[in-house]
């Protein structure tokens, strides 16, 4: 039915060439981008060869079968174009695959309807056969159903083109040429399909011809610029699964790459941020409240830093690594962020256990003494040490139980901190004995002690059995002037004063000062010789 002509053989040659190109691309390393491109080239090759064979077919039945076969690449290729566009833009591959799978369902339905059209005629209203230069091509009149399916496929194809167009603003100057070529390759089938009907030469197999141009250009781009290298899948498997946050900034300090871990860390640091906040953003906009990091980056030196947000229970360790080219110019900056909050919290717990009395939440004896020697070096003025002891505490344990005694110590520790924590170190020295080291004026301290004693009078301890009892304290006070007094001497004097308070009726304060002991309680004062 058809005469021979160079045109079908051109198409067959291009189709075979696309098969060879597809094979060269699909070799290792295999990535999603390579696979999508190989599938596009293969489908394009099948489409082109099937179109050429239709032109050379000897019977209408064979032409109809070949035309039906062409619908498979025609309706599947745009979906893989969409996948390739997303890979080129380095979108998440797993999301791309899910979207492509859902997109493919209507097109598979279309293909089934095309192959069964002889039974229901849902897809073709009529079929005619047209001749071009002794070549015969089948032409069909589409039904409304066929037009809707074709429109759906074109929407997918235009979506891929739209993705590339909207990304133009985010493309660096160095990559704009390849981006434009990639976009042109996508647009060629649309332009050629629209322009060929207006050509003075009426050619058959217009879709096949336009796909041949696209396939050849895509292969050139991907070989020339290595656009489907192993990096996207390596980034997904390594870069995206790293526990440390990684941010890569270009020479203009604009964010070029960020992995999932970095996004999580930054959204913890800045709760108002979302994943979309990091699109096309600059270093100074991300770390606007961290001037130290900005200085480290501007120094162009490898350096480390730490960020603390105690109110958020967040601690970040970071590292700045300039990435240099051979001429030692800063091409990029790598910032690594590590969330060390768990380790810091564990460290704080260990420190707390080593320094804090767990029952009263005051310092233990060892840490109290350590802080005394640190503080006294920087506090040359008068220093005061108070030793407090709960009166008749053994009777509390015996009469109400040790649980009641522990509860009393807890409440006492809380009250103690509320009265004396400012300008003071508070610690539990053991049992029911507590110490306070302060630089407040003596009159202020005495007033605080009296108010504290009054508070204890009106703060009954309630046991589990609904029994009540009150706490009373004896206090020994010693005074050190300057930083020449050792803690041992100061403690010995305060302890002697406490001893006198215990043996003078309890529930009172005794001051050891200049070899005299001054006895005080809420109502009276008197001086006595040692």
From TrEMBL:
It comes from Saliterribacillus persicus. Keywords: Membrane, Transmembrane, Transmembrane helix. InterPro entries: Diguanylate_Cyclase, GGDEF_dom, HisKA_7TM, Nucleotide_cyclase, Rev_trsase/Diguanyl_cyclase. One of its GO terms (cellular component) is plasma membrane. This is Diguanylate cyclase (GGDEF)-like protein. PANTHER family: DIGUANYLATE CYCLASE DGCM-RELATED, REGULATORY COMPONENTS OF SENSORY TRANSDUCTION SYSTEM. Residues 381-514 form the GGDEF domain. It holds the Pfam family HisKA_7TM. NCBIfam families: GGDEF. The lineage of its organism: Bacteria, Bacillati, Bacillota, Bacilli, Bacillales. SUPFAM superfamilies: Nucleotide cyclase. PROSITE patterns: GGDEF. It comes from the Bacteria. One of its GO terms (biological process) is negative regulation of bacterial-type flagellum-dependent cell motility. GO terms for molecular function: diguanylate cyclase activity.
């Amino acid at each position: 039915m058809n005469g021979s002509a160079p045109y079908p053989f051109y198409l067959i040659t291009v189709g075979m060439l696309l098969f060879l190109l597809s094979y060269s691309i699909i070799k290792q390393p295999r990535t999603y981008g390579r696979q999508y491109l190989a599938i596009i080239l293969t489908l394009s090759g099948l489409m082109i060869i099937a179109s050429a064979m239709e032109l050379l077919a000897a019977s209408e039945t064979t032409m109809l079968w070949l035309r039906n076969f062409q619908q498979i690449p025609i309706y599947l290729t745009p979906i893989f174009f969409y996948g390739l566009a997303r890979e080129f833009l380095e979108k998440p591959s797993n999301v791309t695959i899910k979207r492509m799978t859902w997109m493919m369902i209507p097109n598979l339905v279309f293909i089934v309807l095309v192959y069964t059209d002889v039974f229901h005629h849902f897809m073709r209203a009529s079929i005619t056969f047209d001749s071009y230069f002794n070549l015969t091509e089948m032409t069909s009149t589409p039904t409304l159903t066929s037009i809707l399916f074709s429109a759906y496929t074109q929407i997918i194809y235009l979506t891929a083109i739209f993705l590339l167009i909207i990304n133009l603003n985010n493309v660096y100057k160095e990559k704009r040429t390849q981006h434009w070529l990639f976009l042109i390759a996508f647009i060629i089938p649309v332009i050629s399909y629209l322009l060929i009907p207006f050509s003075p030469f009426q050619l058959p197999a217009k879709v096949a011809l336009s796909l041949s141009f696209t396939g050849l250009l895509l292969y050139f781009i991907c070989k020339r610029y290595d656009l489907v290298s192993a990096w996207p899948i390596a980034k997904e498997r390594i870069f995206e699964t790293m526990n440390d946050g990684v941010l890569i900034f270009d020479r203009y300090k604009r964010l070029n790459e960020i992995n999932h871990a970095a996004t999580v860390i930054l959204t913890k640091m800045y709760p108002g941020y979302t994943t979309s906040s990091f699109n096309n953003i600059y270093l100074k906009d991300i770390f606007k409240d961290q001037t130290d990091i900005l200085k480290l980056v501007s120094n162009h030196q490898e350096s480390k830093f730490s960020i603390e947000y105690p109110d958020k229970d967040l601690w970040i360790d970071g590292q700045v690594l300039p990435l240099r080219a051979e001429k030692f110019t800063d091409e990029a900056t790598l910032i690594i962020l590590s969330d060390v909050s768990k380790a810091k919290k564990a460290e704080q717990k260990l420190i707390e256990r080593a320094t804090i009395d767990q029952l009263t939440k005051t310092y233990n004896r060892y840490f109290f003494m350590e802080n005394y020697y640190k503080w006294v070096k920087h506090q040359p003025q008068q220093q005061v040490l108070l030793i407090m002891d709960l009166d008749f505490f053994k009777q509390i344990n015996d009469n109400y139980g040790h649980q009641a005694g522990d509860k009393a110590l807890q409440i006492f520790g809380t009250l103690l901190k509320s009265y004396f924590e400012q300008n003071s170190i508070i610690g539990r020295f053991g049992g029911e004995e507590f110490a306070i080291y302060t630089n407040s004026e003596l009159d202020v301290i005495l007033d605080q002690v009296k108010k504290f004693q009054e508070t204890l009078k009106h703060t009954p301890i309630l046991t589990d059995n609904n029994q009540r009892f009150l706490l009373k304290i004896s206090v020994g006070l010693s005074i050190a002037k300057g930083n020449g007094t050792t803690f041992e001497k100061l403690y010995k004097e305060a302890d002697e004063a406490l001893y006198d308070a215990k043996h003078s009726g309890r529930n009172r304060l005794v001051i050891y000062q200049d070899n005299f002991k001054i006895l005080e309680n809420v109502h009276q004062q008197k001086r006595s010789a040692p």
